[in-house]
Structures
1.
Amino acid sequence: MFRLNRNLPKAIKVLFITVLVISISGFSPNNQNTKIIQGEKYDHQITDGENSRVIGPGDNITNIKKEAGEMPVYGNWKTFTQKDGLPANKAYCVRIDGDRVLVGTSGGLGVYENGEWRTYTVEDGIAHNGILAIDVSELTGDVWLGTLGGLTRWSGGKFDTFTQLNSGLANNVIYSVICDGKHVWSATGGGAGDYNTYTDEWEIYMERNAPMHEPWTYGVCAGDDKIWIAAWGGGVIEYNTKTKKFRDYIDPDSQMELDVFPDDGVVHDITTGVSYDEGILWVATYFGVNRYDGAHWNTYFDHDSGLLSNFNNFCRAVGPVIYFCTDLGLSTFNGNKWVSYQRNENNTAGKVLITNGAKLTDDIKIREFPASTSIAHNFTIGVDVQGDEIWVATSYGVSRGERLK
Amino acid sequence: MRKMYKLLVFSFLLAFSALQLTAQEKKSNYGNATDEIIPYGRFQEAYINFFDDPQLFTGAGREKPEPTDISEVRIGFLGPLSVSPIVPQGIQMLQGSELAIEEANKNGGYKGIPFKLMVHDDFGLWGAAANKVVEMYDEHVWAFLGSIDDINTHVALRATLKMEIPMMNSGDPDPTLTETRIPWLVHCISDDRQSCYALSEYIYKEKKLSRVALLRVDNRYGRVGTKEFREVSQRMMHPIVLEVRFLDGDTVFTKQINRIKNSNPDAIQLWGNAKETALIVNQIREMGIDLPIFASDRAMSPLFLKIAGKNAEGLVTTCQYNPKANNPALKEFQKNYYEKFGIEPDVFAAHAYDGMNMIIEAIQKAGLNRYLIRDVMTDVKTYQGVTGEIILDGAFNDVGAIWMSKIKNGEYEFFPSQLNISGN
């Protein structure tokens, strides 16, 4: 090591020490447990799960269940792709309907029943093979398909299509569809549509007759006599079906490039999904996610919580748990704890990431558990849960998981 | 003495390394904003900045093989080609694209297969742009260029993410376009955020004006385009004194101009299409108001000069490039364009030419796979086009130099914005 010669002039010594300090600070790498996932810098602080166990057939899951607490944990993942009978590898959405599963893909509708896949396409009467959204009416059992070419109803084995030319549909590209009693709501690039299946009447809501900044809508959900619309560029619009009144929730800082304060409202005006259950409204965006209990907003980012990525394609709430479809895997959360699923880059195994708290702190970190099976692809686009079964639509196939007991 | 010399050399080597590293790590503010105009910058550091790093596309698709049975390589075009008041700009955008395609085909196309432009008009049914993107998806285009109108462009962009088609935008100045974070869009033209920053720098810093009245068109172009100007004026401690609006197609603006006059401003900022802006300039001067007038870049138009005539003298606007730059590639483009179409190319033609060439080069490099084409397009850091240096930031938005333009003797004179000169 260098030792400064006592005979050197004082100025030279000061200069040397100053330069050394500057140099060392300049070179100091940020090595706080950073991790590279798919080429992207990923800042989660991750610790290895103690006594890590794999999650798959025959695996011992005691520790991971203990870590996850009341949160459901899924495993025994099985993936289906075109090779297995799925109409196309890109799966946009999935809906569990009793004993069958409906999957919207870029190549048509896939129906999984009794261990077999059946495919329905434009040749059967569907508006377009690109199926972005599916819902099933509890009232009638009709299946509603939001496609790239209109809204299709599958009823009594027959497909009927509604388009801008033959109905009051706002636009032919349907990003989201939900059934709320006799009403079928759709979110489109030309506004949100409400189709009353009893009276055959259509309403379109956009910036001219609702408090939306823009006409573009991307997600819609219902609950407790309210409809929430993820308005692309307009935050979240709440519509009270009893009073027929609107209110909007927008990003309080009104800036697209930043968030000044977390937990102050919708994280960003560009919203991609909304879901409501048990009195909680969840919001997905490409900039983080929100939880709103009717009084307080909470914001979660990938750097300060167990959320895998700020880029969220979709969300679905089932009971107290929200399922966020991110571009880096599936994140689930109940307000207290995160459980996320991520596939390995080079094999079909993956990992389960558990965060024992809503936000990361010095004491709350992400614990990683290897899993022998995982979801089809980390770019997740749709999800549905029924009982102990979960289905995840991804960029390359659809996966079925089972809740681990 | 020798030891001292060694120590000094070692010290300077270390210092040089450290400075180099610091320079590499130095990041400019989003949108090249000066520290003074960062939102909330005077009061609070943001909890998170969204566009420091580019948004990657992590989905599948890169593994798809190149097709072997095609006879043409299709590239989509989406623009205003009928009914809309911005059809002239749409036609220029189309012609710029056509010229790029024609030249690429003269050079052998893609491995001997010709490129073909699939042209789509974005006017039609409500939200037609989304339906048009579906049509292009069904036509198997490898990428597309469009559009100009901000509503149509947003609608198209939204559909683009679902269908995963690379999108180049060369004509919509709406800053919120790239702020949607959709990793399938590259924006090869400076946006209104850049224009507003340049205008506010010029008005408040260089011209030392402080009381600006804003007269803008009452549509999304006016609302979103002036947002940054309004907010930056406030951050620079010169809140605009009055904002009044007009409708596209209006011809009489007396009421608005009287209100402006009564607000006692020392300058007027206009934001609208060329025709209305020119009529307003005429009426301002006819009413005896001799204040400096500034305008949005749509005043950079022969139509504006024709209507406003000598009243346009001294008006200052921004321009996304310098059409009089001493750039051989630009001059060649201007010559070829004039020879082919019989008119001078405007800003929409020049940027469409660059944007289409960026698509073509990405296809040449990546092959026929939309995901790989997207990767190449978004990997571009700097592209040397006929419009100058296109510099893409973390949102894949062009933050290259913005130019100022002043009308003198009936012609536009160009000079660089101080923002570029000061290197902010």
Note: Chain B touches chain A through 56 residues (CB under 8 Å).
2.
Amino acid sequence: MSLLCFGTVFFVSIVNAAPVLGEEEEEGLYVIVNVDNTIDSVTINQLSRIFNKKVKKFENGVASLPVAQKSSRSVTRKFNKKILKKTVKQLKYYWARKMFSGSSKPPKSLASDMEVVKFVASLKNAVGYVSQKPNNKNVKVILIEP
Amino acid sequence: MNSTSNGIHRSLGRKYLLKRRLGFCTGVIGSLLLGGAVSCYASDAARIDALEAKVEQLTQEQANQGSALEEALSHVEITGYISLRGGKLNERGITYLGGVSDELSFSNETTFGVQLKAPVTEDIHMVLQLSGDSIETQAEVDWAFMEYQMSSSLNIRAGRLRVPGFMVSEYQAVGYAYPWVQTPLEVYGLTPFLRYEGVDFRYFTSIGDVDVRINPFIGSTSNQGLRIGQLIYANQDSQFGGIDIQVNYESVNVRVGYSKYEFDLKADSWDVSMEALIEGLVVIPGDPAIESSGIVDVIDQLAAGATATAATIAGLGDLVTAAFYTAEAESFTAQRSNYLNDSIMGGEQEGEYFSVGFSYDSENIVLMAEMIKGGISGAFPNAKGSYATLGYRLGSWMPHLTYATLKSTDDSERPALPEFEATDALWVAIPDVAAGITGVNTMIGLVNDTRNLSNPNQYSWTLGVRWDPLESVAVKMEYQYISLPGQSYGYVLPSAVVRGEGGASGFDEKVDNVNVVKLSLDLVF
């Protein structure tokens, strides 16, 4: 329980840590999974490995299907910076190596929060990130732990 | 495809007609549609209803098929790359095996390719990658395999695959995917071939925060060129197997690889030239066959010449002088056994390679280092190659510095032949024999130079910068200093040898160091 509280505190601090300006002012960063997924929290490192497809399942053993947003979205920049710790160009470099070795491709990238919510709501093993707290009973926000 | 779309238009057209005219005269419509065979009865209305339903159903099916096709196509991923490379070095008549010569050229090492990945079922994928470069005249299939995802941690690939010899091997043609204009030849030049037909397993597992990929592979090659840079040594069939293990923790990647080969080598230009120089070759078969003389043939002639001279002088009564010539003849005959053609590349040979690699790729610092040890038996060079690269990202710019070294470990497999010794004073007055002695030493020099060509000792420093102006574009510029210690040519050969012209003149151009400038424009899409 105390761990959960700590997680919550940290999650809040991540979301609020960045000095934000203009349109990004009201934007947060929420990681969402399907409501049927038993997972409640994920570490930054696990999330990064899932989105880089270095691992193909969550800690609870459920196969993971990450979904991103378009690189022009500010929430994507935020996610790349805080979670993946890479710029868009560095990510492209990473995925070029993967793809041309006949390996995995980058996560599908969708155009909006809404599409991500719809995607995650419809697929049991999906995981995505959004800028606004979603209002959909089929998805749930999970905690990001350090 | 055409007939399908015509079908769609036809059925759509019919439906449109039906709807417009149904209201006023079913008879006209009936005859129009059914070729005038049916007249204007009440039952026509029912027929038309049925037809309309049928058309509706067909249209729906067509639409469904269309969307199924669209759906399938939407899952086919098409990616591609272009790496336009160019360079120039500062010594005339010299070619660096990376494809750089004394004239600026953008064609030698330019590569391009396209990759398709399509799902067959949920668990099975097909990947096809075609690539081209200026050395091979037609597109090569780099990848063509089926991949079966057995579980989230294990997949099997079968078909044409690329050998995972080093850290960057699998995407060596894709310049965008690494910092340099080209992969360091001191390490990447040692790989015997790039592609094979076979099977590999890739097993993924995690131990805590450490991710591991274990990749055993087995396969064969058929009639592939065995080459270093642009220089083809032989054609080979082979069977081989190996394992590649990669361990990843956050920004750190470590890999270890081992592979073992059995080669059957054919059409070997090394063996042909060695045989011609040492033993002589049958140029035109027959009886008597016409042969080109090798070193041993010339020595036999010289020994015969010395014996004949001794006899002539003895006939003149000068037995003391004759004894000198007899001794010389015996010396020639004794030396003949020094010139053995025992350093060959052809036939059945074995190969073995061991490699380790390390990379660290953080926000700013990029570190890469690899080492390989191994080679092929026979006269092929066995060597130890390594490099280390340090780069630092400054926004879209990344300056980097690389040190690379290559040292052959089996120079004794290509021993230098000793000089042919003669007492010059005895032959001053007999120009034919004197010329023969000079000639045989020239041929010995050629053998030794050729054997030296395959003692690839060199080291190099490369200072470069990579600039990523856009998300999928990299522009690179490099300056490289290559040093070739002692008698070694390293990978810096006389252009004539690289072009396959060879000849005595080619060997005069050994240089001790060379400066290279390289440029590239790399795209992925």
Note: The interface with chain A takes residues 77, 79, 81, 115, 117, 127, 129, 143, 145, 147, 152-153, 157, 161-162, 170-171, 174, 176-177, 204, 206, 209, 211, 248, 250, 363, 393, 396, 468, 471-472, 524 of chain B (CB under 8 Å).
3.
Amino acid sequence: MSEITLRNVIKRYGAVEVVHGIDLDVEEGEFVVLLGPSGCGKTTTLRMVAGLEDVSDGNLSIGETRVNEVAPKDRGVAMVFQNYALYPHMTVRQNMEFALKPLGLSAKEVARRVDEIANMLGLSELMARRPAQLSGGQRQRVAMGRAMVRTPDVFLFDEPLSNLDAKLRTQVRLEIAKLHNRLGTTVLYVTHDQVEAMTLADKIVIMRDGHIEQVGTPEQVYSQPDNMFVATFIGSPPMNMIPAQVRERELQANGLALKVPPRFEGRLAEGQSVTIGIRPNGLSLAGAEMPNAAPARVEVTEYLGNEALLDLRVGPHELIAEVPALGRPAPGTEISVQFDPDAIHLFDTETGASLSR
Amino acid sequence: MAYIRKRNRSIFLIFLLPAILVLFLTTIYPMLYAGYLSFRSYDLAKPFVPRVFVGLSNYQNVLTTGDFLHALKITFQLMAITLSIQLFIGVGLALLVTQRLPGMSIARTLLLIPMMISPVIVGLVWLFLYFPELGYLNYFLSYIGIGPISWITSPDWALWAIAIADIWQWTPFIMMGTAAALTSLSPEPYEAAKIDGNTRWQVFRYVTLPQLKPVLVSLLFLRAIDAFKIYDIIFVLTKGGPGDSTEVLSLYIYRQSFTFWQMGVGAAASFVSLIIIVVLITFFFKSLNRDPMQS
């Protein structure tokens, strides 16, 4: 059994609390990504699961066992570090063998396991090399291999791709996804890169300032963000945010008036301060007469191939729209932009909470 | 740049000249002169007697009379004792002071003090400590039932007495270099080893020690050169005695040259020592090149 359970887990350094009582369930075989900006407590949380940091308060269990006081080696976890953490003076083979040393296996069994994993990861040709003689991608594979030879119950990844270039990152990301499909081991993966999170995760945990902001599938966190932080953190370019007030069944925002979408009717109070959230692809070019349209001026266009991003000025608001690249307006053009009512999110301006639920 | 260099080559030489001159006067000329002397008979007590060419007889004297070989043996004995104990304690202390424990930075500074004291003073301090009846060392040893030890007057103990003083003074050097190397090691491999469940000894033996090896080799080499020419502490503590039980090479050379006034023999002994040091250096660089960390 390799599910991970965190109950009211707190981490303090002296008087400073950095993780504030988080609850999290990672099911057996699940790929869970901890996602958040720098300093949000995601790596600290991972290190607590690994046993490299003490849990200040709360309960941490792996399987049925509470592991707060259990030594890292007895937790059945293996970790892949951001800087690979390879032993610089050992060859690839020795690096992998050293991970097996504590198990006291026969030399034959050690060789069998190392060779098997090396084959799986395509490392067989590199076994006699030292880390300094490997490329970044190869080192990352060795680090994964060293974690895998121990056949752990849980894999922990601490930003494993952040030292790789963009192309290699995509490639290794795919390899990790394939490996997870094949091995079915529970994975807890820390990253600040939302693309990694969206592509790899069964479940994403979005953290900020030591709190969990939302837990959900990639689809859920993208299309049903719980609050403004999640809404702006997930998605690139980020969701447009427009402060507004509810007046006579309209959302009025300085020079912009949108009809309250039907699904919000009855949920809003007259005069309530709300924030309209709309993703760039919820905005489109429209005729001036269309409903929910507003006049806009194109400030900059960014050509991306299939699509183009338009930096628009709508009254005092700066918005980004994603439109088909073909027939995109030139900078300086006055256009009319339409807000798709189905794409509109509303948030309580004060609390930041979503008003959709 | 190349143009300026060409034009100013003579200016470069002018700037270099003082350094070359000093080097020549203080090192190269005396060495050449010593080389010249090592083939001559030169009694400093009779400065007006011509310095006759005697061929290799000074070298023969040095290598066959046994005194030189005895001094060489004592030098290597002292080296073996001090270096191995300094290495052992120095690395141990380095491991200790690099722990994140309270008071470690103060301990680190305090431990460096012996290294900053002049060897003659170290010799004097230990001379008082070793004093047979009035010395602190025997006084404290009497509390644990160990009888008075003739530290510097017994041939059995004199070399150990010198070794202890040298170890006291120079262990901090090994500690400092090792501690610096330890703090520069990346912490992540240690965390990986912790998760894998490797024991502390395994981690030290297979992760730390191999990474420290180049630094330890360099530190030991520097210590070896120092130990090879050790003079001041011995001169203050025992003057090579009792008998010749602590007469190391430098004392032997001093005695030949300035007690017996045999400058030719002293010069020949110096050259043989030089050759031994050069062989040591060559051996050291070979061993560095063999080091896998360098590849």
Note: Strands of chain B lie at 40-41, 52-53.
